[in-house]
C-alpha cells in the first residue's frame, strides 16, 4: 500500500471515521487493559497463559501459543509441519500473504518451497489442488483471502481441500489473520471451522483492534515445538502481558460484534454497488471487509479525502493499493466500530464524493 502524502496527519483532527474502529490513541488502547492484569514472565503465567487457554478453547484445539507477530508464527508452523513429514513444499494461492508481504521468509529462513495452485485473480478451488503433483508438507489456506477483497470458500470447499491435503499426507494450516471476521459467514462455531485444520493462526490487532500479537493453536506436541522455535526467533519476550491483555479486551469487546459488522458491510455494499465510478470486490461482502475501485486520479482522490476531513471531520482513506489501471484508486474497506457509527447512506455519500460526486 502507498500512503498519500500528508493525508494521515488529517486523521487526528477528525471525529468520524469510515474505516474499521477509527482513530484510537495510545491512551484509548491502554485504557482497555484491566489494572489488575496478572503479569507473565517470558510468556509463562498470568494473562498470557489465560489468553492461550482461551484461544485454544475457542478454536477447539488442545493448545495455543502467543507470539509477537504472525510472520513469525506462520513460518514456524510450516517449518514444524515440514520437519515432521520430511518434505519442503507448501501449497498456497498465488496471492498468499507469506509470499507477497513477508520477503519469502519461509524460503530464506526455513528452506521451504512454494507450490502455488490456482489463479491469481480468483479463489483457490478443490479442483486447482488436483494439478499439484508433488506431495507437499502442508496446504495453507487464508480465511478470508485479503487480496481478493475478503473472499471465503464455502464450508464444503474447505472440507474438500482439507481432505485432499490429508490424502497426500500433508498438514492443513489456516492463515486466520481475519478468522474472527470470517466466522459469521459460515454461521458455525469457530471450533468447527478450525477443526478442519491441523494448525490455526489468528491475529489480535486486525479485526479485534488490540496491540500487536497473535496465537497459533494446534496439537500439544506441535505447539511445544512452536514454543522452542519462538525462542530461537527471539520472540519469547521477557514481558508479553500488555499485548496479551489487550488481546483479551479485544475478544471481550469486538468478537461478539463481528456479525453486526458483516450486516453493516452488506448494507453499505448494496448502496455502493449502485454508485457510478465505484466497483466492489466482492460485490456482496463475505466478511466485514471489501475492496473498492474508485475512478479518480491520485491527485483528485487526495484532494477529495482532504476536503471531507477538513470540511466535515470525516476521515476516509490515507492509503491506496497499487492497481494496474490508470485513473483508478483501490482501497481496502474494513468495517468496524467506527463504521457502525455511520449510516450506510453516509458512507455511500462519502465514497460517491471520492468518485467525483457522482
Sequence-ordered SSE layout with sheet pairings:
Elements: E1 2-3, E2 16-17, H1 26-31, H2 46-59, E3 63-67, H3 70-85, E4 89-92, H4 97-100, H5 105-108, E5 113-116, H6 126-129, E6 138-142, H7 155-167, E7 171-176, H8 179-186, H9 190-194, E8 199-203, E9 214-218, H10 220-232, H11 241-253, H12 258-272, E10 278-281, E11 289-295, H13 298-312, E12 314-315, E13 319-320, E14 328-334, H14 337-340, H15 344-354
Parallel strand pairs: 2-12, 4-5, 4-6, 6-7, 7-8
Antiparallel strand pairs: 1-13, 3-9, 8-9, 10-11, 11-14
Question: What do you see in this structure?
Answer:
The protein is α/β, with parallel strands linked by helices and 358 residues long. The protein folds into 2 domains: 2-21 and 256-354, Aspartate Aminotransferase, domain 1, CATH 3.90.1150.10; 26-253, Aspartate Aminotransferase, domain 2 (3-Layer(aba) Sandwich). The chain has helices at residues 26-31, 46-59, 70-85, 97-100, 105-108, 126-129, 155-167, 179-186, 190-194, 220-232, 241-253, 258-272, 298-312, 337-340, 344-354; strands at residues 2-3, 16-17, 63-67, 89-92, 113-116, 138-142, 171-176, 199-203, 214-218, 278-281, 289-295, 314-315, 319-320, 328-334. Helix 3 packs across helix 10 (220-232) and helix 8 (179-186) packs across helix 12. The mean pLDDT is 96.
Amino acid at each position: 500500500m502507498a500512503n498519500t502524502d500528508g493525508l494521515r496527519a488529517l486523521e487526528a483532527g477528525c471525529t468520524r471515521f469510515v474505516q474499521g474502529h477509527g482513530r484510537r490513541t495510545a491512551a484509548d488502547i491502554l485504557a482497555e487493559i484491566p489494572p489488575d492484569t496478572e503479569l507473565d514472565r517470558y510468556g509463562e503465567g498470568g494473562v498470557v497463559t489465560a489468553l492461550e487457554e482461551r484461544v485454544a478453547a475457542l478454536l477447539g484445539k488442545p493448545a495455543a501459543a502467543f507470539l509477537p507477530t504472525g510472520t513469525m508464527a506462520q513460518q514456524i508452523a510450516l517449518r514444524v509441519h515440514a520437519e515432521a513429514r520430511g518434505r519442503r513444499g507448501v501449497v498456497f494461492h498465488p496471492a498468499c500473504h507469506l509470499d507477497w508481504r513477508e520477503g519469502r521468509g519461509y524460503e530464506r529462513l526455513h528452506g521451504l518451497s512454494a507450490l502455488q495452485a490456482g489463479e491469481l485473480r480468483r479463489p483457490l478451488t478443490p479442483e486447482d489442488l488436483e494439478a499439484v503433483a508433488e506431495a507437499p508438507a502442508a496446504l495453507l489456506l487464508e480465511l478470508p483471502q485479503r487480496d481478493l477483497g475478503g473472499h471465503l470458500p464455502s464450508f464444503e470447499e474447505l472440507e474438500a481441500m482439507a481432505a485432499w491435503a490429508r490424502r497426500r499426507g500433508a498438514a492443513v494450516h489456516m492463515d486466520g489473520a481475519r478468522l474472527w471476521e470470517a466466522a459469521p459467514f459460515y454461521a458455525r462455531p469457530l471450533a468447527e471451522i478450525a477443526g478442519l485444520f491441523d494448525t490455526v493462526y489468528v491475529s489480535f490487532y486486525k479485526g479485534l483492534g488490540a496491540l500487536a500479537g497473535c496465537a497459533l493453536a494446534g496439537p500439544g506436541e506441535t505447539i511445544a515445538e512452536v514454543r522452542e522455535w519462538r525462542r530461537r526467533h527471539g520472540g519469547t519476550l521477557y514481558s508479553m502481558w500488555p499485548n496479551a491483555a489487550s488481546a483479551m479486551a479485544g475478544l471481550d469487546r469486538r468478537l461478539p460484534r463481528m456479525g453486526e459488522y458483516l450486516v453493516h458491510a452488506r448494507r453499505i455494499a448494496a448502496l455502493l454497488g449502485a454508485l457510478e465510478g465505484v466497483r466492489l470486490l466482492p460485490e456482496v461482502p463475505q466478511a466485514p471487509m471489501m475492496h473498492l475501485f474508485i475512478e479518480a486520479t491520485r491527485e483528485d482522490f487526495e484532494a477529495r479525502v482532504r476536503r471531507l476531513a477538513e470540511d466535515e471531520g470525516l476521515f476516509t482513506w490515507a492509503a491506496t493499493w497499487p492497481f494496474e489501471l490508470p485513473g483508478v484508486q483501490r482501497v481496502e474497506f474494513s468495517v468496524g466500530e467506527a463504521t457502525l457509527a455511520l449510516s450506510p447512506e453516509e458512507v455511500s455519500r462519502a465514497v460517491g464524493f471520492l468518485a467525483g460526486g457522482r
